[in-house]
Amino acid sequence: MPRMETPFFFGYGSLVNRSTHDYTDAHGARVHGWRRTWRHVATRQVAFLTAYAAPGHTIEGLIAGVPGADWEALDQREFSYLREPADDVIHPLPAKPEVHIYHAPPHLHQPATDQHPVLLSYLDTVVQGYLREFGEEGVTRFFDTTDGWDAPIKNDRADPVYSRAQKLTPDERTLVDDNVHRIKIKTAS
C-alpha cells in the first residue's frame, strides 16, 4: 500500500498560536493570493477572521501537518469555514506538501456588528501567536494585512468568552492595544 503524505493546513488567525492546538509539525509560512478580514456568519455569535481570495496580496501564518489526514477534529473546530487547497504557499519544508486553507464563503459572511463584535480575547490570542512566530514586525504586518478594523471590539479580557483564550503578559496586552489604536486611526482617515 502506498504511503500517504501528511497534508497541512494554513492557519492565519488563532491557529497561528500553537497553544490553541496540538499540531506539532508546524512552521511559519506565507500564502499568496489571500487576505484576512473580520466577519460574522449566522453560525457564530461573534466576529472571526476569515480569508478571502485577493490577487497580489500575501498573508503570513502557520502551516501544520494533519497526521493521517484526519481532518475531523480540525473541521469541527473550523465548522463555519470551507476547507480548500491553497496553491501558492511559501514555507521552509523541503517537500511540497498538500496545504489547505479554511475560509468562509463570501456569500455567507457579513461585516462585524455591535451584535457580532470581535472578542478582544480572540484578538489577543491571535496576536500572541503572531508575536511568537514573527516578532513585533509580524504583529504589525498582521494588523496591516487584515481588513474589517471598523468592526466593534468587545473587551472581554476580564472574563474571556473565546474558548481558546490565552493569558497575555502586560507587554503583550500593550502591543495589542497600541496596534488596535494605530489601525483604527489609520482606517478612520
Structural commentary:
Strands 1, 2, 3, 4, 5, 6 and 8 form a seven-stranded mixed sheet that branches. The chain is an alpha/beta fold. The radius of gyration is 16 Å and the shape is globular. The mean pLDDT is 91. The chain is built from three helices and nine strands; from the N terminus they run βββαββββαββα.
Class by helix and strand content?
alpha/beta
Number of helices: 3
The CATH homologous superfamily is called: Gamma-glutamyl cyclotransferase-like
Named at the architecture level, the CATH assignment is: Roll
What name does CATH use for the topology? Answer: Hypothetical upf0131 protein ytfp
Terminal Cα separation, in Å? Answer: 60 Å
Please give the number of β-strands: 9
Largest sheet: 7 strands, mixed
Number of domains: 1
Residue-averaged pLDDT, rounded? 91
N to C succession of SSEs = EEEHEEEEHEEH
Helix content: 25-40%
Shape: globular
Strand percentage lies at 25-35%
Radius of gyration (CA) equals: 16 Å
Q: Show unreliable segments.
A: none
Assigned CATH class: Alpha Beta
Concise overview:
With 189 residues, the chain is α/β, with parallel strands linked by helices. It contains 3 helices and 9 strands, in the order βββαββββαββα.
